[in-house]
Structure formats: structure tokens, C-alpha cells
């Protein structure tokens, strides 16, 4: 009797074990390696897939798959490569660019990409009604700024003309050495005019054209599925001009929250993570050094101050806050990925420009400044809030800085966090006291950082404005001699950090976990990784 | 002993309190629970004074240190002493537990007794409202509250927890009241001309005391648990303050690399929950009128 039960149980458990063993689901990574589909962590749900409205790097990294500008960047060297334009001529004075279109450049519905499409796109982003925060990226084009600020209402007067069906000419305001790499940025991406107009007017901000099924792009991939907070799924675009160069059959962009992402990676759900939680860095260094990748990036992590709010209007208060952050300790003991403490705003070696350190770590001086501003030992200092987008790492840094300010200055702040989309809209509405922010260079030049301080810059939410600073940035734009130009930037940076509307904290080192099946993902100072270069090689 | 004194003593011996005490004295688990709970509470209030570290004192160079002679329970990522953080977190957790329970108790008892006493359509209406609120998921209520009030404070946690916990209390009290309402001594009180208010306060509530006390002791641990859930979701206590929920949440992410960051707060938390549950069970046995000696 007992024996029979024993045998039955044994048989049953064997059967169970076999079924479980047979139907064991393959992990995303295993599945992806066989079908050439990449599972990529992006950290947060993209706010939009409209190239003219987005400001974040997360969104850019997705749109790069769907759209292609006149030029593209080489995955390894970041050198300019042909995109929609297969070649170009530059006039001797560097002011006139003539682009010859690739006859194979097509939209994902089969239409040819024409110079007219680009004109429509330039007009769209520059039209004040659209309220594109990033429109200033087009300012190097002649009269783009005048049109964007409303001084000029006729778009045909702006320096872009379609010569014929496959030639586009762009005239510049002044010679801009980095112009060709600028064209690879999402603000210069074309959109498909019939699609835009089908789902609303040209300047409609909330339009259905970015939905899967409606989206028409000209990039190597097309938008197959977009499930909110779950995934953005891209598949190969059969109409892409250079279909031979596309290795991956599909890309799954997964907006997994940073702390969960690492676990997802360990269980084989992701090929590449958006970042690594800071408390895991040492562990990976020790146990799986081949998996963790560090790349020095042209990026600065900083706190943006709303200079219209209470005591933050006083530059002495802002400086006091900046001088009491112990950046050495933060980078060395908390961040641990080799980040550099930031005593200036522009990251080192941005287009050959190395900013000078502009302020010290000096709590004594900070206390003195705060006392001068009328808050000796922080007495009477109103409570204010520090807002960051939800993430363990940002929180850890914020808690550490909160304590530094409390200990050294006697100031109490509250911490507040919002998820990425909410954070972006709060930031755009300027409804914050202090906001965690970061800025990655869009091109290898100090201008991409320092133009953020300009009064009219759509990404300047500090309410800070200095005519002298604006004038310097304008002057740098027309200065051709590289050394003189750098000197002007130094001057501008000195003003910026003497007024301190932003508190630089550290310069980025991007850390990611990368599965060893992934090939062709290169460290990039712009944190820009063209997908055509990526291949998945299954080692097992 | 005079005759009067003897009579008085006999009366006291059968009173609710005395009776329960006799019961508890025989219940070993409840006693252990009581001692544990008092010890932990005392530790939370006195312990931080004995340590040379303070709640938010950070030393970034000593982040994530394992337990040692300097830091008995180790440190967290920012080099803050975990011993102090756990004890002060305990103050918050136990404090929230008692305060929110008290709020739920007051609302639940008033609501339930009125519903049960008045009866009829009013009772139906009141209890269906309770059912309706019951149907709302707890996290939804909390998210709505936090979005509405924007600022997250401890008061909000009380409100959120109180808003859900009083429902069960109201049901229990209403059931008891309904049963008592029909009994002869209530009719007698009515005949004597006692007001409704007096009947509720003097005659009905004292007779519900047993279930109320029992349920309250069992509610405290569940409230502490809820506070932890809220803090775990990031809706509760805000940094740099600590609570057991916050500490466990942080520790859980690092369970495989810095296990002490999870083990110690979880240990304190579970011991407290066990202790309170034992006390609650003991009281239930002690106060149950059907329990024969």
C-alpha cells in the first residue's frame, strides 16, 4: 500500500518535473539572440515620440530608431556619416550647405523623402505656436531665430530652400563648425507632412500621429507597438534606404524602473540596462567585471534653482548652497563609478574646451554668505523642496545633500519625487524650488551646455537672465578663432557660476550592464548608440 | 473583613478587568508578547540616547559597513548608523500604529454604535456606505489623498490608514449594538426615561468593550504593517526620516549584498508584530464571555 503510493508519487513528480523542464520559458535574452531582437532598458516611459517636442535623452534614443536626419553619426567614432543626404557641398566661407539626397531615402509608407519634407519640419519646430522647447537648436540657420521669436512671419525668408526634388540648401547665420553633427539631432529630424496633417494641424502638440500604426518615419525601424509603461516595440523598416546595414530585426525598448531593471537584467530579461543602481556598482566590479561598462560622457549632473522663489532669488543664498556640497566625498564614496566632481558647468574637454574651476567647497564661506543674505545659521530660512525624478540613485544623492545643507547651513529641505513624465511637465511649468537635472551634450562643443543659460533658451527653467551672459554667448557664436571663442566661453561661465542659477554636482560616467551577446555597442561621450551597428551573437 | 467589604470584593472578582487579568496570568504567550513589546518600545525611546550617533549623521566614507563594535547593526549607504535609525524608525512605526488606531477606533465606534442603535433605513444607508468604501482598494485611497494634498506628512498617513481601518471597527460595534439593543436591560433603561445618548454611553458601549479592546490590539500591528506598505511604496514617511517600512524597503533591494540592512529592521518589525498579535490573542481569550473557566 505504502509502496504503491510511493511509486505513484514518484511517477507524478517525475512527470511534473519533465513538463516544467520542457516548457521552461526562454528568457528574453535567449529568445532575442535567436531572432536578432534587442531588449533595451530605457529607464523611464518616454514622454513623447514627437522629435520636435521632446527634450530628453531617453526619447532621443528611441526616435533615433524611427527617424533619420540629413546626417548620422558613426557608432564608434561619432564622426559624421551620410544620412538622408548622401553627400553635401560646403561653400568656402562655411555659410552655405548644399545637401544631395539619397534617392533611396523613403518614408516607411514608401513615399520618397523630399527636401520639402524637411522644410515642413523646420517650419513646424520653429513656429512659435508649437512651443518647441528645443527649437533653438535650429538657430544656426539664417533667420531661424527671427522666425521662432516672431520677428519674421514668412518662413520662405528663412535660410532653407529646396533647389529641386533632391537638393536642399541651408544657409547659416554664421560659420558653425559643428553644424553637420547638429543635423543628426532629433530637432533636425524630418516628419512626414501628410501624416502630421492627417491627424491635426501642423502645430498641434497633442496629436495621434505618434501612435503605433499612425507613425510614419524614415529611420531603420518602424513603430510596431507602444504599450504605455510596458514597451515600445520597433521592427525593421522594409523601406529604409540602407536596409543592408540593419542587423537587428527588432528592438524592445523597456521602460523598467532603475532598481528593478538590474534584477531584470540578472534574470535575462534585458540585453542592456539604462544604468546601474549605485549600490550594485561595487558588486559588479568585483563579481562580473565583464558585464559592467563605464563610459565617460559629456554630461553634467546639476541642481537647477528657481531664481524667482523666495530666498533663492538672492545669488548669495544660491552660492552658499553650492559651496556646501562635498562633491569629492559624493563621487568617491557614493557614486563610485569614477565620476568627476564638478566645480564648473561644462564637462571637461567639450570640443577641446576645458573650463576653469569657478567655485570652492567651503562651508565657512557659505555660512558667511548666508548670514549676509539675512539668514545667519539658517535662521528664518523658509522650507523649500527639492524635486527629483523617481530613482534610488537620485534619492541617495538628494538625501546626502539634504544632510550637508542641514549640517553646514542649518537649512531644512523637503524631498519630493515624481515619475519622469510628471517631472518633465513640472519642470516645464517652472513649479519647483530646486530641481535635479542633467544635461548631455548634443554635439561636442561647449555651446551645447552654455547656451542653456541664455534667457530665451527653451530648456532654461531657472528664470535667471543676464543680458551680459546672452551677449557673450552670441559673441562666441560669431567668433571663428577657436582660442578666442574658448576665452569668451570662459568669461560666460564665470558669470554663470558667479550668479549660480545652477549648481553643478558631478560630471557623468554612464554605467550600464551589457550582455556579452551584444556586439557593436561602443562607449560614446554623447551617449549616442546608433542601432544599425548592433548585432547579437549567441555564444552558447 | 466586614460584610460590605466582602460583597465588594466578590463583585470586583467577577468584573471584566479582574477576570481578564486572571486569564492573562495563565497565558504564557500573551505574557511573553507583553514583555517583548514593552522592551522594544522602551528601546526605541531610550536606545538612541545611549548611542553616540544621531539619526541623520552621515559619514559617506563609511557607507554600507557591516556590523561592528562602532556600528552595532552596521551602516546604510550614506554611512548612517543603522542601530539609531532602526530605533527612531520604531518610534515612528509604533507611534503611527497607535495614533492611527486611535483615530480608527473613535470613528469606528461612534459610527458603528449609532448605526446599530438607530436601526432601520438609517442603519442600512450607513452600512451600505461602509460597504462602498470597503470596495475601494486601499492604495487607491492613499494615492488620491497624496495627490490631493500634495505634501506628504505623517498626518496624511494617519488619515489614510484611519480612513480604511475604521470600517471593520464600525461593523463589529454595529453588530454588537444590534444584539444588545433588543435586550431587556435596554428596555428597562428606556422605561426609566434615559436619553438615547445616555443609553449608548452607559449601557451599550460598556458591553461592547471586550470585542473593541481585542480588535484594537489586533489592529495596531496591521496598521504598523500598512504604514510599512505605504512607505515601501514611497507614499509614507519621507526622507531623511526613517521608519521600519522605509528601512525594510531599502534593505530589500540590497538583500544579497548588504544583508544586515534588511535583517535588523525586519527582525525588530516581526518581533513587534508577533508580540502585539500574542497580546491580542490573549486578550480575546480573556475577554470572551463564552470562554468557560
Description:
- The complex is a heterodimer of chains A (540) and B (293).
- By secondary structure, chain A is of the alpha+beta class.
- In chain A, 33% of the residues lie in helices and 19% in strands.
- In chain A, the strands form five sheets. Chain A has a six-stranded mixed beta sheet. A four-stranded mixed beta sheet of chain A has the order 1-10-9-8.
- In chain A, strand 13, helix 13 and strand 14 form a beta-alpha-beta unit.
- The mean pLDDT of chain A is 89.
- Chain B has 293 residues and is mainly α.
- In chain B, helix 4 runs antiparallel to helix 9 and helix 4 crosses helix 10.
- Chain B is globular and about 75 Å long.
- In chain B, 36% of the residues are buried.
- Chains A and B meet through helix 9, helix 11, helix 13 and strand 14 of A and loops of B.
Q: Structural class per helix/strand content of chain B?
A: mainly alpha
Write down the overall geometry of chain B: globular
Q: Let me know the average pLDDT of chain A.
A: 89
**Chain pair forming the biggest interface:** A-B, 26 and 18 residues
Distance between the amino and carboxyl termini of chain B: 27 Å
| Helical content band of chain B | over 70%
Biggest pleated-sheet summary of chain A:
6 strands, mixed
Termini separation of chain A comes to 47 Å
Give a concise summary:
In chain A, 33% of the residues lie in helices and 19% in strands.
Can you give keywords for this protein?
heterodimer; A: 540 residues; alpha+beta; six-stranded mixed β-sheet; four-stranded mixed β-sheet; B: 293 residues; mainly alpha; 75% helix; globular
Present the secondary structure layout.
The complex is a heterodimer of chains A (540) and B (293).
Chain A: H1 2-23, H2 28-35, E1 37-41, H3 57-66, E2 71-73, E3 80-82, E4 85-90, E5 96-101, H4 115-126, H5 144-148, E6 160-164, E7 167-171, H6 179-182, H7 193-198, E8 221-227, E9 231-236, E10 250-254, H8 258-266, H9 278-287, E11 292-305, H10 315-323, H11 327-335, E12 340-341, H12 363-372, E13 384-389, H13 392-409, E14 413-418, H14 420-429, E15 434-440, H15 447-450, H16 467-478, H17 482-499, E16 502-513, E17 518-519, E18 535-536
Parallel strand pairs in A: 1-10, 13-14, 13-15
Antiparallel strand pairs in A: 2-3, 4-5, 5-7, 6-7, 8-9, 9-10, 11-15, 11-16, 12-16, 17-18
Helix pairs in contact in A: 10-12, 16-17
Chain B: H1 3-13, H2 16-26, H3 28-50, H4 82-118, H5 120-135, H6 138-149, H7 154-181, H8 184-191, H9 196-232, H10 244-253, H11 260-287
Amino acid at each position: 500500500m505504502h509502496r504503491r503510493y510511493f511509486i505513484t508519487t514518484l511517477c507524478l513528480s517525475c512527470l511534473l518535473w519533465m513538463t516544467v523542464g520542457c516548457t521552461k520559458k526562454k528568457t528574453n535574452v535567449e529568445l532575442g539572440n535567436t531572432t536578432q531582437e534587442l531588449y533595451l532598458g530605457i529607464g523611464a516611459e518616454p514622454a513623447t515620440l514627437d522629435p520636435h517636442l521632446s527634450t530628453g535623452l531617453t526619447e532621443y534614443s528611441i526616435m533615433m530608431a524611427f527617424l533619420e536626419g540629413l546626417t548620422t553619426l558613426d557608432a564608434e567614432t561619432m564622426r559624421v556619416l551620410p544620412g538622408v543626404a548622401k553627400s553635401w557641398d560646403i561653400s568656402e566661407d562655411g555659410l552655405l550647405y548644399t545637401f544631395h539626397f539619397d534617392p533611396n531615402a523613403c518614408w516607411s509608407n514608401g513615399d520618397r523623402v523630399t527636401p520639402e519634407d524637411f522644410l515642413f519640419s523646420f517650419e513646424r519646430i520653429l513656429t512659435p505656436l508649437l512651443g518647441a522647447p528645443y527649437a533653438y537648436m535650429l538657430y544656426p540657420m539664417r533667420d531661424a531665430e527671427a522666425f521662432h521669436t516672431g520677428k519674421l512671419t514668412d518662413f520662405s525668408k528663412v535660410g532653407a530652400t529646396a533647389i529641386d526634388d533632391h537638393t536642399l540648401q541651408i544657409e547659416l547665420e554664421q560659420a558653425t563648425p559643428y553644424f553637420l553633427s547638429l543635423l543628426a539631432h532629433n530637432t533636425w529630424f524630418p516628419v512626414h507632412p501628410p501624416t502630421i496633417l492627417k491627424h491635426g494641424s501642423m502645430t498641434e502638440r497633442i496629436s495621434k500621429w505618434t501612435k503605433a500604426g499612425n507613425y510614419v518615419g524614415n529611420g531603420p525601424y518602424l513603430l510596431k507597438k507602444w504599450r504605455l509603461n510596458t514597451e515600445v516595440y520597433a521592427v525593421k523598416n522594409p523601406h529604409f534606404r540602407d536596409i543592408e546595414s540593419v542587423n537587428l530585426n527588432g528592438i524592445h525598448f523597456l521602460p523598467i524602473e532603475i532598481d528593478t531593471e538590474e534584477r531584470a537584467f540578472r534574470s535575462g530579461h534585458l540585453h542592456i540596462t539604462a544604468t546601474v543602481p549605485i549600490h550594485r556598482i561595487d558588486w559588479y566590479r568585483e563579481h562580473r567585471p565583464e558585464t559592467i561598462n563605464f563610459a565617460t560622457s559629456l554630461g553634467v549632473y546639476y541642481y537647477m534653482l528657481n531664481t524667482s522663489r523666495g530666498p533663492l532669488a538672492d545669488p548669495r543664498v544660491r552660492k552658499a548652497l553650492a559651496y556646501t556640497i562635498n562633491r569629492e566625498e559624493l563621487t568617491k564614496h557614493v557614486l563610485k563609478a569614477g565620476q568627476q566632481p564638478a566645480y564648473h558647468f561644462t564637462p571637461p574637454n567639450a570640443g577641446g574646451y576645458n573650463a576653469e574651476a569657478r567655485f570652492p567647497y567651503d562651508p565657512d564661506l557659505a555660512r558667511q554668505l548666508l548670514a549676509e543674505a539675512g539668514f545667519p545659521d539658517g535662521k528664518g530660512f523658509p522650507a523649500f523642496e527639492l524635486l527629483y525624478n523617481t530613482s534610488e540613485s537620485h534619492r541617495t544623492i538628494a538625501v546626502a545633500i539634504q544632510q550637508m545643507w542641514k549640517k553646514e547651513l542649518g537649512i531644512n529641505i523637503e524631498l519630493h519625487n515624481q515619475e519622469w513624465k510628471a517631472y518633465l511637465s513640472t519642470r516645464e511649468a517652472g513649479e519647483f524650488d530646486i530641481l535635479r537635472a542633467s544635461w548631455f551634450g548634443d554635439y561636442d562643443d561647449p555651446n551645447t551646455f552654455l547656451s542653456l543659460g541664455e534667457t530665451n533658451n527653451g530648456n532654461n527653467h531657472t528664470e535667471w537672465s543676464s543680458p551680459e551672459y546672452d551677449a557673450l554667448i552670441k559673441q562666441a557664436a560669431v567668433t571663428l578663432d577657436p582660442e578666442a571663442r574658448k576665452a569668451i566661453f570662459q568669461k560666460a561661465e564665470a558669470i554663470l557660476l558667479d550668479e549660480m542659477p545652477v549648481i553643478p554636482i558631478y560630471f557623468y560616467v554612464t554605467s550600464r550592464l551589457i550582455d556579452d551577446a551584444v556586439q557593436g555597442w561602443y562607449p560614446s561621450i554623447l551617449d549616442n548608440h546608433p542601432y544599425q551597428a548592433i548585432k547579437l551573437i549567441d555564444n552558447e | 473583613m466586614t460584610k460590605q467589604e466582602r460583597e465588594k470584593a466578590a463583585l470586583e472578582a467577577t468584573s471584566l478587568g479582574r477576570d481578564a487579568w486572571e486569564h492573562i496570568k495563565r497565558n504564557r504567550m500573551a505574557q511573553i508578547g507583553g514583555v517583548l513589546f514593552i522592551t522594544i518600545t522602551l528601546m526605541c525611546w531610550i536606545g538612541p540616547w545611549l548611542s553616540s550617533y544621531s539619526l541623520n549623521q552621515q559619514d559617506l566614507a563609511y557607507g554600507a559597513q557591516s556590523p561592528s563594535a562602532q556600528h552595532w547593526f552596521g551602516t546604510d549607504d550614506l554611512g548612517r548608523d543603522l542601530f539609531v535609525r532602526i530605533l527612531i524608525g520604531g518610534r515612528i512605526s509604533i507611534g503611527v500604529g497607535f495614533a492611527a488606531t486611535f483615530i480608527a477606533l473613535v470613528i469606528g465606534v461612534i459610527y458603528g454604535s449609532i448605526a446599530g442603535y438607530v436601526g432601520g433605513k438609517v442603519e442600512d444607508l450607513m452600512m451600505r456606505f461602509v460597504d462602498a468604501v470597503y470596495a475601494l482598494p486601499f492604495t487607491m485611497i492613499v494615492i488620491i489623498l497624496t495627490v490631493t494634498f500634495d505634501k506628504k506628512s505623517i498626518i496624511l498617513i494617519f488619515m489614510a490608514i484611519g480612513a480604511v481601518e475604521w470600517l471593520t471597527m464600525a461593523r463589529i460595534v454595529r453588530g454588537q449594538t444590534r444584539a444588545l439593543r433588543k435586550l431587556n436591560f435596554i428596555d428597562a433603561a428606556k422605561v426609566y426615561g434615559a436619553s438615547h445618548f445616555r443609553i449608548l454611553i452607559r449601557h451599550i458601549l460598556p458591553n461592547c468593550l471586550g470585542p473593541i479592546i481585542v480588535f484594537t490590539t489586533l489592529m495596531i500591528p496591521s496598521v504598523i504593517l500598512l504604514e510599512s506598505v505605504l512607505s515601501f511604496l514611497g507614499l509614507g514617511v519621507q526622507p531623511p526620516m526613517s521608519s521600519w517600512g522605509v528601512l525594510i524597503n531599502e534593505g530589500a533591494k540590497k538583500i544579497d549584498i548588504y544583508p544586515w540592512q534588511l535583517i535588523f529592521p525586519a527582525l525588530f518589525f516581526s518581533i513587534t508584530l508577533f508580540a502585539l498579535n500574542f497580546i491580542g490573542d490573549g486578550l480575546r481569550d480573556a475577554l470572551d464571555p463564552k470562554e468557560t473557566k
